[in-house]
Amino acid sequence: MVVILENNATEEQIKNIKQHLEDFGFQIHESSGVQRTILGAIGVKPGFDIRKVRILEGVADVYRVTSPFKLASRKFKEEKTVIKIKDVEIGGSKIAMMAGPCSVESEEQIFKLAEVVAKSGSKILRGGAFKPRSSPYSFQGLGEEGLRLMREAADQYGLLVITEVMQIDQIELISKYTDIFQLGARNMQNFSLLKELSKSEIPVMIKRGLAATIEEWLMSAEYILSGGNKNVILCERGIRTFETYTRNTFDLSAIPIIHNRSHLPVVADPSHATGLRDQVPPMARAAVAAGADALMIEIHHDPENALSDGPQALLPETFSQLMQELRLIAQAIGKTI
User: Fold this and answer.
1) Per-residue pLDDT for 200 more than 90?
2) Is the pTM of this model over 0.85?
3) Which one, of 81, 75, 80, lies nearest residue 62 by Cα?
4) Which residues of 227-260 are buried (b: 16+ CB within 10 A; e: fewer)?
5) Nearest CA-CA partner of 189 in 234, 226, 220
6) Residue 206's beta-bridge partner residues?
7) Is 90 exceeded by the pLDDT of residue 45?
8) Each residue of 7-24: pLDDT tens digit?
9) In angstroms, rounded to a whole number, what is the distance separating the alpha carbons of residues 237 and 233?
10) Residue 9: which CATH number?
11) What is the pLDDT, as a whole number, of residue 138?
């Protein structure tokens, strides 16, 4: 249920409305926009008479939210969520760029690539320290040493860090090094992990599951939002279909659909979506044109010898050229990079 407050509602009236909602058994989530304040009353109450709320002083309107995702819905918050981390915004008029290797492999590698990321104008360094791989024999990451190296490289070049968290007992450790938690596609419906991340104040980027519908994806965001963490980002990274010419099928349509249904920012990851470096630039360009709030691109200075996902990593010079192209496309749709 969404409760829209009058523009001139007093603090005493708002307090009284909240108290009534709690007495009715609802959990309250407040969204304060530029023009109005909205209260989300969460809780299954079949047959509840919303007139009990509508008659309260300070209430402008009340209506039910029929979609299963309440807090992630545009009905709960009409204005786009803009997540601010230091001097970086995700969801605003400037498209945020995230770039770096699939995995942190060595000090030399991550510092070299952090310099490339910074010189390109990107603001966020990506890299994996704990790697969920399809094969148990593949490189699994450097663990905390990888986190430390990535943090040091990012700090030297004035970058933020985004890295993946795979399980609950990693949250405390990774939080010491990262600015954004990445929840991988395989963990999108790891509900225990979602609940723990909801207790953190660190932003969480949720990658769409391999075969997840858009609604299931939004419901994962709902877990984090309902637990108190309002800093949620969605990432389209391709879904599994019958097609074999690409690693996954990049669902570009998900970007405008999410913007229509939700206020949360959307990131596009053409690297994992396609799996081949020659396909990454055209899909990155298309993602900007489709309205992505941020892009995540994998780069590597020696992709042929990369320990993970080398075939999809762009060379530094290709990435630099792509950034120039993306700036032109962003300008055409009224944005900047």
Assistant:
1) yes
2) yes
3) 75
4) eebbbbbbbbbbbeeeeeeebbebbbebbeebbe
5) 220
6) 183, 234
7) no
8) 888 999 999 999 999 999
9) 13
10) 3.30.70.1140
11) 65
